Fold this protein.
Amino acid sequence: MTTQTLASAMAATLRPLRLNFAQVCIWCGYRWCTSPRCVGLHEKSVWIVCIDCDGFGVLGPLDACHCVHGLMEATPAVDSAELRRPLPVYRPEDDEPEFMVTPRSAGRP
C-alpha cells in the first residue's frame, strides 16, 4: 500500500478555503464575510490533516467528522509524531465492499 507522510503533505501548505461552498465564513459564520479579522485569522492559521479521520471527512459509514474537509487547525499541543505518521491512501472501511440486501416486496415478480 502506498502511503504519504504528513510532513511531506504539510510542505504543500494545507489550508481550507475561508468561505465554505455556501460562501459562509469558517471563522465567524457569516455569509460573504469580508471582515479583516477573519481574513487575518485565516492567513495566520496552520492546518494539518485531521488526526481523527485521516483527511477523509468521515469516521464511519454514517458519522461525519468535526474537521473542515479533512483538515483541522493545528495547535501547539499537536504531538510531533502526528506530523510524521503515514497517511492511508483509502479508508480502511473501503477494503471490503458492504452490501445491503432488501427484501422483495410481495406482489412484485
Remarks:
- Residues 4-88 form one domain.
- The chain has one domain: 4-88.
- The mean pLDDT is 80.
